[in-house]
Input
Amino acid sequence: MPKRINFKLSDDEKFNALWALLNPEFNEEGNWTVSYGISAVYDEYALCVNYESGEMNRVYYSKNDEKDMVELGEIVKCYIVDVTENEKATLDTLRVLNGDTYELVSEVLEQAESNADKVSEFSTKIEELEQSVATLTTERDNANSQATEYSNSLTQANETITSLQEENASLTEYKN
Output
């Protein structure tokens, strides 16, 4: 019995199969209507433009080499971003920090914004507390000065009392 040889779908055949599945009206009956253009085909998805909506989409697909066919999967809206080299480096850094995916970068950025807001709020509170501390320090120093003055006045008053008591005792003795 001769062995059966299976050929895998070539990249060109994948492209053509995806084109046909995405553009079912590309025939005489459908007035040769093209719904999707394919920019690039990758191992798991094709990057396509939806001409009706003007949106870019990732069109996930699976291929069956035994049946020489491609099946469409989920179609996900995506964005092609015009960035400079520095902006791309920043995005790559965010992706690496986020576990090699862009999926949760927005959450990380939202957390960063939230943390920045909290830092600003705490900085304001710290400034307020530092002003309160400065005010309380000034009030304490003033109170200490007054306490020193009162202590000095008390000492003088006690000395005066002692002096007057001695004078009184002396006068009482003289009188007797």
Notes: The longest helix spans residues 105-175. Helices lie at 11-22, 85-97, 105-175. The mean pLDDT is 85. DSSP finds three helices and four strands in the chain.
